[in-house]
Here is the input.
Amino acid sequence: MIRTTRRTVLAGIAATPFLPGLARAEAVGRITRFDDALDAVIDVASPIEVLGTGYKWAEGPVWVKKGGYLLFNDVPSNVCYQWRKGKIAKFLDPSGLTGPIPAGIREAGANGMVVDALGRLIIADSGTRAIAAIDLKTKRKTILADKSEGKRFNSCNDVALHSNGTIYFTDPPYGLAEGDKSPLKEIDFNGVYRLDPQGKVNLIDADLSRPNGVAVSADQQILYVAMSDEKRPQVLAYPLDVEGGVSDYPKVFCDFSAELDQKLPGLPDGIKASRGGHVFATGPGGVYILAADGRKLGLISTGKAIANCCFGEDGKTLFLTSSDMIARVRLKISGW
Here is the structure.
C-alpha cells in the first residue's frame, strides 16, 4: 500500500532503532472521543501497547484462530511475521515474489491477508501481482488469479471475504516502481474486483485512482473500499446483492478531507467491519471508529500513520500495523 510520495505523506514520527521480532512493553499514542457512543466500544484510557518495531512498513494483519497467532507483513522486506504469545518470528520469507526482484518492482512482499473458511491464508501478493492461497501447514502457495481479461494485475493490495467464498480485492499501482507510468503496467486503470468461488474475475470499479483497503459488513450487504487519494480521501460503500455482486453505485460512507487538511499522518488505507456494525477505518491520524451510518465516534492514534488493523485473540483485541511497528489495544466489543 505504498506509493512514490507515501514516505512523505504517510510518514509519522521517526522510529527509535529496534530489532524486528523483539517485543517491548511500551504504550504509545492516545484514544480520542468524538461522540459519547464511543464509550460502548472502547475505553479512552486503554493503553496502546507496542509489540514490536523496526519494520520498513508493517501491513496486512490477520488473526489465525486455529493456532492462536497473528500474522502481519513487512511489505518492502518481503517477509511475513508471526506474533504468538509475545514472541515474533519470521513465518514466510519471502512472503510474496520469489526469486530475483526485477528493477520495476518496488514492493515485492505480500500485503493484505485474510483466512478463509477452508483455513487457507488468502493474500494480496503485491510482488507476484496476484491473489494467492497459502496452506498454513505446508506453506505451499497456490495462485488463484493473476490476470483480468488476459492482462496482469498491477500490484494486488488488499483482500476481503464474503460468506459465500467470494474474494474482493483492490489493485492499485503501489508495488510498481514507477506507479501508473510503469512499463510493467498492463491494465490502464486501478481496479476493484471480485473473484467468485468458481475462479472468475469480475471488475467492480475502474474509476478509482487509488483503491486500497476493502472490507465486507457483517450482514454481507455492504462492500467498503478505502481510497488513499489526497484529492478524494474517502471510504465508499457499495451495496451487495445476495450473491455478493455489487447491485448499485457506491455512496460516500466517510470523508477524511478535513483531517487530511490538518496534515495528520496517514491516508484512508486498511479497513475492518465488526459484527456489531462498527467500522474501523484507517485515515489521517490513525484508526477511526465509525458508527454504521459513518459517524466518527473516536480515533485511535499512535502518532504515526496506521496502515491496517484486525481483530484478534478473543475478538476484543484490535491489532494495529503502524508504520514501523505492530501494536494492540483492547476493545469492549468483539469484532467477530
Observations:
- Residues 1-24 have pLDDT under 50 and may be disordered.
- Residues 20-330 form a domain with the Neuraminidase fold (CATH 2.120.10.30).
